[in-house]
Design a protein that fits this description.
It contains three helices and four strands, in the order ααββββα. By secondary structure, it is an alpha+beta fold.
Length: 130
């Protein structure tokens, strides 16, 4: 076999390998995770986070203090918990505000916070991930 014939055979071999590689890479990808397995759960943003009333009370106390309220006491009544709080002094020398209450009660796998100021309720929900 001459050198010229070997180079032609090598060129044909390289062309064959290149075309097979190109065909293999152009075929559709089959395992994209979108078929046969059924649904794997809820779509993003639809899942409910499980929160216990004890976690909700700890977060509520922190948020109330952060907003300038003073937590007076926490009582357990039936399945819910009542947080008694009042407005702090805020450095104005006008004394403390009247005692108010908010209720944290379980509802399925999450909790419901009732009778809380809107800005406090918003921060509680954000911190709990609800």
């Amino acid at each position: 076999m001459s050198a010229h014939t070997r180079s032609i055979a090598r060129n044909h071999w390289l062309t064959l390998v290149a075309s097979l590689t190109l065909c293999a890479s152009a075929s559709p990808a089959l395992a994209q995770g979108r078929g046969h397995g059924g649904s794997k759960g809820l779509p993003p943003g639809q899942a409910k986070k499980m929160v216990t009333p004890a976690q909700a009370v700890v977060v509520s106390r922190d948020v109330l203090v952060m907003h300038g309220f003073e937590v007076v006491r926490v009582e357990t009544i039936k399945t819910g918990q009542v947080i008694y709080y009042r407005r702090g002094n805020n450095g104005r020398g006008r004394g403390l505000g009247p005692v108010e209450k908010m209720v944290v009660r379980p509802s399925g796998s999450t909790v419901i916070v009732e009778s809380a100021p809107k800005n406090v309720l918003l921060d509680i929900r954000v911190r709990l991930g609800l």
